[in-house]
Amino acid sequence: MHYPRRLPRVLSTEDVGRLLEAAPGPGLKYKAALSVAYGAGLRASEVVSVKVSDIDSKRMLIRVEQGKGRKDRHAMLSPQLLTVLRAWWLQCRSQGWLFPGQDPILPITTRQLNRACHMAADVAGLGTWVSPHTLRHSFATHLLESHTDVRVDTTARYAQVATNLLRTVTSPLDHLTLAENKEPT
User: Which helix (H) or strand (E) holds 37?
Assistant: First the structure.
């Protein structure tokens, strides 16, 4: 039996900004994690698996190990996302996982990330349907709306040329003005 395929629901850029600002604290952990989901288009399982060493600020890339289909790839690291991640790192000083769990040997779980997203959506007055995957869909949709070929994300694992192209793409996160994104002094 064939079921009709539904289009993914996406947030407006304004709603994404409200969601990120409403991320639960204390600290910047969940704002930073949800910013990675939106700013780099990562799946929840990929966000929680990012290690500090996966952030390549020289090449402006995030290494994604064993993503969907057990494949490694690179995702974009926008200047605004790097600012958020640096501010978060200054708070946590983790040497391993970028988003450590209560036990720092382990990362936060996708369930914790989902729960934080739902809490932020509630505070921001958005629907209960909002999840980290909504941020991934919103990332792709906002790239398409800015006339960027979203396939650069998935082809980046096949060729260095694609990785170089990926570094030239502007993340939709860079179009948002978020509080607390100023460089720490």
Answer: helix 29-39
Q: Which CATH architecture has domain 24-174?
A: Orthogonal Bundle (1.10)
Q: Which H or E run contains 140?
A: helix 132-145
Q: Are 62 and 166 in contact (CB under 8 A)?
A: no
Domain extents in the chain: 24-174
pLDDT along the chain (185 residues), means of 10: 78 95 93 96 95 95 79 88 96 94 94 97 94 93 78 46 59 70 44
Residue 67 confidence (pLDDT): 62
- From the list 16, 17, 47, 43, the residue with the least C-alpha distance to 138 is 16
The contacts of residue 51 (CB under 8 Å, 6+ apart) are: 96, 97, 98
pLDDT in the model for residue 158: 41
What single-letter amino acid sits at 17? Answer: G
